[in-house]
Specification:
The mean pLDDT is 88. This protein is an alpha/beta fold. Helix content is 45%, strand content 8%. The protein folds into two domains: 106 residues; 35 residues, no CATH class. A four-stranded parallel sheet has the order 2-1-3-4. The protein has six helices and four strands; from the N terminus they run E-H-E-H-H-E-H-E-H-H. The longest helix has 15 residues.
Length: 143
Amino acid sequence: MIYHGTVWFDDKILEAANKALNGFKRILDRDDMMIASVVYPEENLLIGDNIAHSEAALLWMKNRAESELGITIDKIFLAGHSQGGDLVTRLNTMHETHGVVANAPGPLNLIFRCQLEEEGRMPAGIACTGLRNAYGTTASKRL
């Protein structure tokens, strides 16, 4: 299962999903596996808030795909690029899979990343700005 990188507008999701799918297909050119590209919403969501949509795709694959598609699934591997890399890393801690490939997983530690932005050590980005507006600064979250 392939998870695409960040797009800020939902009208760009299919393009991103196809790009990720085609990139992994070039690497995994095999006849004995199915590669599914997962499309999940992002517009008007904070980074990471689409985990429920991403998890739903994995659970469908684990629990319903065989009967609904008439196929046999022996193993499920997750792969993702950028935000997709972060999502597959998180999903693998939530549900057992057979492995994960996280290509350029974008930031696995958002508190650290957003702290760098707040201190002026990195340019401000849309993800951390949205999180700060919703939840406050990283300093307000430390003990």
